[in-house]
Design goal:
4-stranded parallel β-sheet, about 55% helix, alpha/beta, globular, 5-stranded mixed β-sheet
Length: about 675
């Protein structure tokens, strides 16, 4: 029988550059607060600052000893090490960040100058190589020796990377920085720097600016600022004038939805610093890129003529951030550059809009969708343009790669739901789609699809505004799973078109999973951060065979109410020495917040996220109620109590999830006459 192969869409060079730029931005942007702190200290306390303080600014002497100050050490050590740690952590979590920072120290000491480019190389390199080294002995370390091997391998490899940085990377990066600085100085000396706007302004609209800005301009600008007290490079891309001028032109000469939304977009752009808000307006009329280029060139030329600049990056590109980072002697020049860039951009855009025939009506939505397609994800500010998303709905602009089940604690229901959905997506032929689980508190805006219980959706939306949201009330058998699988199929095959999920309304019979899905997720390599509530560090490992023990299986539970069943499940965990009394109280607290009913006659009560300190070791209890009990209006025949340390319990939950999605297996559980039958059933499924 012939096998049909689905062709993978080719990735364009633009997308590769976007991804590279996003990665660079991911190292810089989380540390912008540190850059701002350094910029403010520099502007205030250096010798030419507003309030010169020798001990802080690093000039002069105190008692015959030269003042080190804050400015030099922060720019030489703190900022590069933060970047390196962030880059390493992006590749391989905290362990990768630490090794990347160690390696970067060698580059810093070897160069003797701020090593931002070196940090952006050594950080990810350290994380990636440490990850590869760890994979060599993954699963081969004898119990009890994990900490010894992990600590010494990181220390030894970090030391070797530091020497590589000192002798190998440092000279290369120094040579590159010197050459790039000479090119910039050549452009400045010959009045050619404004020509960079020909490349930068179109790059912004195509979302390629991060590679240019964070990969080249910010590192070179920092070095220039350290030498001269300011840098023009920080405003080559961040000047809000060009975009503001285009939006003003739309306010006066636009039509339809574009004109109506332009004032709000202008406020977000100019004061909020979110430049992507004006990109759809340019995409509607591509000729307007000429207005952006003209405005950008005018702004850069003004800065060059007035010898003005910023002391540190302005992020986001708000006029407030720009003025906050302006050098003491550059306020007139910087304000003029923004003002003149706005005026020139406005004039050119007005001429284009008045002399070309074009209907703005109805085009804004299409242009916004085009922008999101180029960006590769939902824009966080697009609703300001289109008025969409009142219910938090997101329209996918690219293939689905990451799906997360989120619940209050990230321990039970989300794990089970993730397990069920992961199996469905794999069966549909998309094994590369990552399905994990997490607590609401640990969510970030990095997911394509977020699945939550209907009572938690509104809590998840603010921190995952770029994702498509699905609300369920039955994690085991929700019909929404089929909708998600179909969305993955349409988005991840060539020619597929992203569909719009109905996040606002939970599907009938939707599922509420919190535990089993996450269980399977972790069982297939879900990250520890996505795991359920963990006990405090230092607890010993629990053998997998001990997590669900025979004495924790009860075939005929005595409880007749939901709360009594929670107590019964909790008492079994307590009897195993897995939890203390306070954890049982936390199980009730969790149930009052969001139901742990999973569907298929199953409930998985567990503690809240704050109850992790009350867990002593991983354990699971299973109680059967042949006659069933009322669980918030649902009939429950099986109650699984959960307490987890470091994901140790997740393989059991994965097995439970598989059993309860199979009617025949559920029937076997209902007919079981001994505890051993239950253990055997879960053991066979897990195997």
């Amino acid at each position: 029988m012939a096998t049909e192969t689905v062709a993978k869409p080719r990735t364009s060079a633009r997308v590769h550059v976007q991804k590279f730029g996003t990665f660079l931005s991911g190292m810089i942007m989380p540390n912008i607060g540190a850059f701002i702190a350094w910029g403010l200290i520099t502007a205030l306390f250096i010798e030419k600052g507003w309030f010169p303080v020798p001990q802080l600014g690093g000039f002069g002497e105190t008692d015959g000893v030269a003042n080190t100050g804050l400015v030099g050490p922060m720019i030489t050590y703190l900022l590069p090490l933060l970047i390196a740690y962030t880059g390493g952590r992006m590749v391989y979590d905290v362990r990768g960040g630490v090794v990347g920072a160690i390696g970067t120290m060698g580059v810093i000491v070897g160069a003797g100058i701020p090593m931002f480019i070196g940090a952006m190389i050594m950080g990810p390199l350290g994380g990636w190589t440490m990850k590869k080294i760890d994979s060599i002995w993954d699963g081969k370390i004898r119990p009890g020796f994990e900490m010894l091997v992990n600590n010494f391998s990181a220390g030894i490899w970090g030391g070797l990377l530091a020497m590589l940085g000192f002798y190998g990377i440092s000279p290369l990066v120094t040579a590159f920085s010197t050459a790039a600085g000479n090119v910039v100085q050549f452009l400045v000396n010959n009045g050619l720097l404004p020509l960079t706007s020909i490349f930068i302004e179109p790059a912004k609209v195509l979302f390629l600016n991060n590679a240019i800005n964070h990969g080249v301009l910010t590192p070179l600008g920092i070095q220039q600022s350290l030498d001269q007290g300011k840098s023009i490079l920080f405003l080559l891309e961040a000047n809000p004038g060009p975009g503001f001028g285009i939006l003003l032109a739309y306010m006066l000469f636009g039509r339809g939805a574009a004109k109506a939304s332009a004032p709000g977009a202008a406020i977000i752009h100019f004061l909020g610093g979110i430049h992507e808000i004006y990109f759809p307006y340019v995409l509607m009329r591509p000729l307007l890129i000429l207005a952006a280029i003209a405005g950008g060139m005018t702004g850069v030329a003004t800065l060059a003529v007035t010898n003005s600049g910023l002391v540190a990056p302005a992020a986001p590109g708000s006029i407030i951030a720009v003025l906050a980072q302006t050098s003491r002697d550059s306020y007139i020049g910087v304000i003029l550059s923004v003002l003149l860039a706005t005026v020139v951009s406005f004039l050119v855009a007005s001429i284009i809009m008045k002399t070309t025939r074009h209907s703005d009506e109805g085009d804004l939505n299409a242009a916004t969708s085009r922008m999101e397609t180029m960006k590769g994800k939902k824009s966080s500010v697009s609703t300001a343009l289109t008025g969409a998303g009142t219910a938090g709905t997101a329209v996918l602009a690219g293939p689905v790669k990451n799906i997360v089940f989120a619940c209050d604690a990230g321990m039970g229901s989300s794990a089970m739901g993730a397990s069920v959905l992961r199996n469905k997506i794999k069966a549909a032929g998309f094994p590369d789609v990552k399905v994990t689980n997490a607590s609401i508190a640990n969510l970030s805006d990095d997911y394509d699809i977020v699945v939550t219980h209907q009572d938690l959706t509104e809590r998840a939306k603010p921190v995952t505004s770029s994702a498509a949201h699905y609300s369920v009330d039955n994690f085991m058998n929700s019909p929404r799973y089929d909708d998600i699988v179909e969305l993955v199929r349409e988005s991840n095959t060539e020619g597929g078109i992203g569909t719009e999920p109905d996040d606002a309304t939970p599907g009938s019979g939707s599922g509420v999973g919190t535990a089993a899905g996450a269980a399977a997720g972790a069982a297939h390599g879900a990250h520890a951060a996505d795991a359920p509530v963990d006990a405090a560090p230092g607890t010993g490992q629990t053998g997998s065979s001990e997590i669900l023990a025979r004495e924790s299986v009860v075939l005929n539970g005595s409880a007749t109410t939901r709360d009594a069943a929670i107590d019964e499940a909790g008492r079994l965990l307590l009897a195993r020495g897995a939890v203390d009394e306070d954890y049982i109280a936390a199980m009730h607290e969790r149930e009052e917040s969001v139901s742990t009913y999973m569907g298929s006659f199953l409930a998985i009560p567990h503690g809240t996220n704050a109850a992790k300190d009350h867990i002593r070791k991983s354990a699971v209890s299973v109680i059967r109620y042949p006659e069933g009990i009322d669980w918030n209006g649902k009939q429950v025949k099986f109650v699984v109590g959960v307490a987890g340390v470091n994901n140790e319990h997740l393989h059991i939950l994965s097995a439970i999830a598989k059993v309860f999605t199979d009617k025949q297996q559920v029937a076997r559980l209902e007919a079981a006459t001994s505890e051993d039958e239950v253990l055997e059933l879960f053991g066979k499924v897990n195997a």
